[in-house]
Please model this.
Amino acid sequence: MIVQLNEIETAVNQFLDQAFSPDLSLIEWRQRLVAAGWAAPSWPEDCFGRGFTAEQTAVVDRVFKTRRIVGAAQVGPRRLAAETLLVHGSVDQKNRYLPSILTGEHSWCQLFSEPGSGSDLAGAATKAERSGDQWIVNGQKVWNTSAHHADFGILVARTDWDLPKHQGLSYFLIDMRQPGVEVRPLKQMNGHASFNEVFLTDAVVRQDDLVGGEGHGWAVATTTLSIERQGFARGRNPRATHSAPAQGRVYDEEAKELEIDNEPYTWYPQREGRPDLVFERARETGAISDAAVRQEMAKLVCLSEAAKISARFVAAHRKLGNGEVLPAGSIGKLGASVIARQAAQVHTMISGTDAMLSGSGSPMDGVIAETLISVPAISIAGGTDEIQRNIIAERVLGMPKEQRQDTGPFRDIPRNIS
Ligand SMILES: Cc1cc2nc3c(=O)[nH]c(=O)nc-3n(C[C@H](O)[C@H](O)[C@H](O)COP(=O)(O)OP(=O)(O)OC[C@H]3O[C@@H](n4cnc5c(N)ncnc54)[C@H](O)[C@@H]3O)c2cc1C
Model:
C-alpha cells in the first residue's frame, strides 16, 4: 500500500502517463479513473477509492491540476448523494450508483423541502406506500435545485403516519426520468431559475432503492444535511471547477458538461456576498479613504479570518482522527451567512445607490446588484440561520430544547396543508 506522499505523486503520474489521452471521450476517461481508484481517492478502497487522508488526496489533486487533467464529475447535488451512500448505502446501491456519479453519466437532485415542510423537514408529508417489491410515491417537493437536469433524486418521504414524525420517514433513491415525476422550473428575483417544483404522482421506487432501511430516513437525511452545510462553509465558485483550457475531445466534452451542470449555480459566488471584490471596489471608487467604510471592511476581514481559523480547526481535528466536530456544519454555514451579509453591507456603502443598477456601465456590470439580491439565499438554503442557531444552542451550548407540540402520531399533528 502506498503511504508516502512522494510515492503517491509518482504513482499518479505513472497512471496518467499510461492511461490519459486528451482524445478519449469524457466518459471513457473517467471510467479508467474510477477503475484505477483515482477518481475519488479519499473514498474507501471497497468503494472505488483508495482510503486516502485529506493530505494524501491533496497530492493527487495537485498533480491533476498541474497537468491539466480532467477529474471526476463534481458539480451539483451528485456529491450529496454519493457521500450519503458512502455512509448509509448498501453494497448493491454503492455499486449501482457511485461509478456513474463519478463519471458524470448521471446527475442528481435533492428532494427534501415541501410547501409545508422546509425548516421542519421531519414534517414531510410526501407519501411512499409499499406495493410488492416497490414503493409508490405521491406528493410535492419544492426548491429542488437542478431537478430539471437530474436523472436521479435523493428523496425523503413518509412511510408510516402512525409513528412520531421523525420515525415515520424513509429515504429513497428515485428515478427522475419516469412518467410519475413532473418538474416545473421556478424563476427567482435575481432572474435565474435554479429551482423547481417536483410533483410526484404514483411515481415508482424499487425496494432496493430504499436507503438505510424503512423508518430510518431521518438519520440518513441528517447525514446529507451535515455534508451540505460543510459545503457552504467551504464556499463554491462554479468557475473554479473548470479545467484549464486545453485541446482535445475530453476537454471539449467536459466544457459542455460544465456548461449544463453549472447553469443553476452561476449566481452562487454572488450569494456569498463577493467579499473578494470589496477591496478592488473600495480602491477604484475612492471609498477606501472613508473611515466608516474602512471600519466595516475591517469587520468583514475579521469575520472571514475567524471563519478560516474555525475551518482549519475542524480539518485538524478530523486529521487527528477525532471524528466530526459537532455540529461543525452548522457553525460553518452560519459563518458563511454572516460574512455574505457583511460583504453585501460593505458593497452597499461603497457603491451607494449605484449598487441597484444592472447592465453595462453599472458597478461591475451588474455583479454588485446581483450580489445584493442573491445574498438572502445563503441564509435560507441548506437550513436557515435560525435553524443553525437552534442546533448550536441545543447541541453545543446545551441550552433547553424548544417546547414541542408535535410529538405523538404524525397523522394527529396539526399541519399547514394549504
Ligand atoms: C439557494 C437555495 C437552494 C435550495 N436547494 C434545495 C434543494 O436542492 N432541495 C431541497 O429540498 N430544498 C432546497 N432549498 C430549500 C431550503 O432547504 C428551504 O428553503 C429551507 O430549509 C427553509 O425552508 P422554508 O423555505 O420552507 O422556510 P420555513 O421553514 O417556512 O421558514 C420560514 C421562516 O421561519 C423560520 N423558522 C422556521 N422554523 C423555525 C424554528 N423552529 N425556530 C426559529 N425560526 C424558525 C425560518 O428561519 C424562516 O425565517 C433551497 C433553498 C435555497 C434558498
Remarks:
- Residues 110-113, 118-119, 143-145, 377, 380-381, 383-384, 386-387, 390 surround flavin-adenine dinucleotide (CB under 6 Å).
